[in-house]
Structure formats: structure tokens, C-alpha cells
Amino acid sequence: MAVSKIDIANMALTHLGMKVVTSLAENTPSAIACNNFFAPCRDDVFRESRWPFATVSAPLVLVTDTVIGWDYVYLYPVNAATVWSVYDESTVDEKDSQEFEVFFIPGSNRRVIGSKLSYAYADYTYKVEDTSLYDPKFVMALSYRLAASMANTLTGSPEVSTQLMNVYNAILSEAKRVSGIEKRKKPTQKSSYQNSRG
Fold first, then answer.
1. d(CA 74, CA 9)
2. How far is residue 197 CA from its own chain's centroid?
């Protein structure tokens, strides 16, 4: 079943043992806290794992910035939470072993990616805003991450925040395991010559 932002917020409030809200536009401490913490918590959970529902593979945009030690500099994708790999067509089967580095360029006020590859692509986690697309484990993880962040504000208890973060980390660990199952790659096909000598 698709969930909405308020559904996730109310799950978080329930984890805190608090009453749910009927609207995030309410001028109540709970609604205000949900609005203040939702986006940072969502983006933090996106950064934690290669969520299959939010994985993007796309070409990178070359920029004129220079970074010592790297042959090519690319613009960091605007809606990326985390860039996981940078590769080109010849290294697609070895994408996770390709070197890259993320930098901030003060002069142009932007994040960039340094690479040795021309015509590079990146696999990254996209900051999906449409909650109806969220994976159930992502929803559960986000609800606990949100609850942990709001705990001190709404309950005044750092201990509750710590407990909820522990639950969040356990759910995240399981989510990473399941996400790994959905990321299987066929072995690279050997040539007929290699096969005949195998």
C-alpha cells in the first residue's frame, strides 16, 4: 500500500508513544517537529544504502573545473543523495572498482566528481520525493530515524532517541541485506577461446 508523508510522520509519532496528527499544517509541536526533521532524516536514510527503488544510472556532465590528480571533473548530480560508482562503457562490469572522488569547488560553489574516465556514468541514490514509490523497509527505517530525531524535542529524553536509533540501525541492516538480493549481476561471459581452455 502506498504511503504518504503524513503516514510516515504519524508512524514516527506512534514510535514515540504520541498522538498522531491530522495534518502537517497544524500549528502543534508534533506537526512542526515532523516538518522540521522530515527532509533531513529522509535524505540521511537515502545516503545509507543503495536502495533499489531509488537507484539511478546516468551519464555525468563534464565541467571546466580542474582538480589535481584527476583527468576529468564532472558535476555532482543535483538530486543525488550518494554517488556509489563512476564508470564508463568499457568498465561497466567493474564499476565498483573504478576510482573517483567527490570535491567541493568554492569558486563555483558546487560539488564535483573527479575521475580518470572520459564520458563517465554514475550509479547513485536519487532523493525520491514521491513517498508512494518508497520500499516498505525504507518507510519503516525512515519512520524510526524521524522518531529518533524528534525524540529529544518532543519528549525531552535523549535516552529515547538513543533507543530509537538502535532500532533504526537494526532495520537499516536488514534493509541493506534485502537490497543486496535485488542487486545481482550475471558473471562476465568468457570468450569461446577461454571456455575451450577452461
1. 36
2. 43
Can you tell me the distance from the alpha carbon of 144 to that of 14, in angstroms, rounded to the nearest whole number?
10
3-class DSSP state of 117: coil
Query: Residue 120, class by beta-carbon neighbours within 10 Å (0-12 exposed, 13-18 middle, 19+ buried)?
Result: buried
Laid out side by side, the sheet with 121-126 consists of: 55-59, 121-126, 80-87
CB 144 within 8 Å of CB 164 = yes
List pLDDT tens digits, range 39-60: 999 999 999 999 999 999 999 9
pTM (2 d.p.): 0.85
pLDDT in tens, 169-191: 999 999 888 877 766 555 444 43
CA nearest 55: which of 46, 65, 66? Answer: 46
Q: Which residue has the cell 545481482?
A: 184
Contact 135, 52 (CB under 8 A): yes
* Amino acid identity for residue 23 in this structure: S
Residue 192 and residue 165 in contact, taking contact as beta carbons nearer than 8 Å: no
